[in-house]
Structure formats: C-alpha cells, structure tokens
# Entry
Amino acid sequence: MAQICQSCGMPLHKDPKGGGSEADGSKSQRYCSICYDEGAFRHPDASVTEFQHECVQALTRSGMPRIMAWVFTRGIPRLERWKNA
# Structure
C-alpha cells in the first residue's frame, strides 16, 4: 500500500516536492509538503473539520468535482495527525 500523508491523505508519491520537510531539512516520511514544512504544520490551529473544509476547497480549485473532493476528505479524522485532536 502506498504511503499517504498522515495529515491530508494525499499519496506521498504525488507530492510535487516528494514530501514535507523536517526542521533539520530532511524529508518527512509522514507528511506532504502542502501540510508540513520545516518541521511544522502549515495549518497548526485548524480543527479537523476546518481542515477538511480547506482540503475540499483546494481540491475543487484544482478542478476536482466537489462531491469527489468531499469523498476524498472523509478519512482525514482517522489519520495520525488527527487521531487525538
């Protein structure tokens, strides 16, 4: 099974930068570059519901039908970042 970002669920092999970056500059093995940069989340104060909404908006802006974007974001609460949120 392909590795996915543990924040948004995007397959890491589809990340244009090959993954997010840790504070030491190394590639993150868990998070994509859209969600995670220099060892910190790009949306640190977002609730899981707010983050799902932002992901739906981003996917529809990129041309995905809204219903498909909604379906793709339903698994976000089960990802590592959000399990204890």
